[in-house]
Design goal:
Blueprint (H helix, E strand, L loop, with lengths): L1 H8 L5 E6 L1 H4 L8 H16 L3 E6 L2 H9 L8 H25 L4 E6 L1 H5 L1 H16 L3 E6 L13 H12 L3 E6 L20 E2 L4 H8 L4 H5 L1 H13 L3 E6 L5 H6 L5 E3 L8 H9 L5 E4 L1 H9 L9 E5 L7 E5 L5 E6 L4 H7 L7 H5 L13 E3 L1
Parallel strand pairs: 1-2, 1-5, 2-4, 3-4, 5-7, 6-8, 9-11
Antiparallel strand pairs: 7-8, 9-10, 11-12, 12-13
The protein binds glutamic acid (GLU).
The site of glutamic acid (GLU) has 13 residues, from α4 and β4.
Length: 376
């Protein structure tokens, strides 16, 4: 049954984000592995030959830079890691430019931070630039801007970064290529009976625990960040495949061959604006809801009306993403507020019919419309 699913789903995926991990592209003690890079480039171009659009998210800057700066292991100091990324990135991009160039294809470089995604204007700009590049037949190549990355503005890892790229692109498919075959029922290095899971219907807490528990696959392959990425994209309606880039081939994966672990998308594909609200934005304030309002938004999927709001925290303008919490402080969801913090505090607890009179201008009937409201 799962095979039929793959064959129906994957060939129809038009916009594809491919994420390539450091281990695939670099030698264990640093330095570029050019034959692997060439393989990736060939496979991406075959996908494009099938009429698909491909955006590449690449790691490897630090690994390549280690080779140049004479490190045999990843340096511990942040500034040294960033120095490796800075020298490695240009070498890495040069290699991609040469490899794609020999095949007659131009590439574009994106160096992004979490800040770029959180800001709705930048998020929109990245999308529009990408659309323009794809129209020109260019392959965008994305990495994190590691040089400026401090904890607050870092995406953190390229699995997450590739999910964010899927969001602005409304991609149909994310393929994460690493050095492990996919998600296993247990750590294959320590459990002889561990089995590869071919298809995951939904990323449930059970699935997350397979990747995150002590001594699990996570410790060997960074599986947890891949599962976080798979969850975010599949819940927005994109498919995701985690596969071994050494042994598998993108063409086969995209054709629906039984390779790696396929994470099925939810039925409803979200547009980039909703993906931004739900997965990318950082909430700027908090609305505390009474029990009735929690029930209404959770059980009846209603919009959030002012009557059920008991408190507002933080200062925010209208059109800002805010978090909703229950009376015990537990997160209920997040959504786009139609009013500023000052306005919400004035209309909180009041019937919707009074909103206009209180705020003094024509206004929506709800504080967060259900189309812009996402539950946790
Ligand atoms: N941006 C890092 C690099 O290019 C990789 C981060 C990651 O692989 O998650 O080396």
């Amino acid at each position: 049954m799962s095979q039929g699913l793959r064959e129906r789903l994957l060939p129809s995926c038009k916009r594809v984000v491919v994420k390539v991990g450091t281990r695939l592209l670099t030698h264990e003690h640093g330095g570029l592995a050019p034959s692997q890079l060439e393989r990736v480039v060939d496979q991406i171009l075959s996908l494009r030959g099938e009429g698909r659009e491909v955006v590449l998210v690449t790691s490897g800057a630090v690994g390549v830079g280690m080779g140049i700066l004479g490190y045999a292991t990843k340096p511990k100091a942040l500034a040294e890691k960033q120095a490796c990324a800075a020298v490695g990135q240009i070498r890495l991009m040069h290699a991609y430019d040469e490899a794609f160039g020999r095949r007659g294809v131009a590439i574009a470089q994106y160096l992004l931070t979490a800040e770029d995604f959180r800001d709705p204007e930048r998020f929109g700009n990245i999308r529009r630039t990408t659309d323009a590049l794809l129209k020109h037949g260019v392959v965008p190549v994305v990495n994190e801007n590691d040089v400026v990355g401090t904890a607050e503005i870092k995406v953190g890892d390229n699995d997450r970064l590739s999910a964010d790229v899927c969001h602005f692109l409304e991609a149909d498919l994310l393929v994460i290529l690493s050095d492990i075959d996919g998600l296993y029922t247990a750590n294959p290095k320590t459990h002889a009976d561990a089995a590869l899971i071919p298809v995951v219907l939904r990323v449930t807490p059970d699935i997350e625990s397979l990747a995150g528990g002590a001594g699990s696959v996570a410790s060997t392959g960074g599986m947890i960040t891949k599962i976080v990425a798979a969850k975010a994209v599949t819940e927005s309606g994109s498919a995701c495949v985690i596969a071994n880039g050494f042994t598998s081939d993108l063409r086969e994966i995209a054709a629906g061959a039984p390779v790696g672990t396929l994470f099925l998308p939810s039925e409803k594909k979200l547009g980039s604006r909703k993906r931004w609200i739900r997965f990318v934005s950082t909430p700027k304030g908090v609305l505390v809801l009474d029990d009735g309002a929690v029930k209404a938004v959770r059980d009846r999927r209603s919009s959030l009306l002012p009557a059920g709001i008991v408190r507002v925290e933080g200062g925010f303008a209208s059109g800002t993403v805010v978090e909703m919490r229950d009376l015990k402080g537990k997160a209920v969801g997040r959504g786009l507020a139609n009013f500023s913090a000052v306005e919400v505090s004035r209309i909180a607890g009041r019937p919707s019919g009074e909103i206009q009179g209180i705020v003094g201008h024509a206004a929506p009937q709800e504080v967060v419309h259900r189309d812009n409201l996402f539950l946790v």
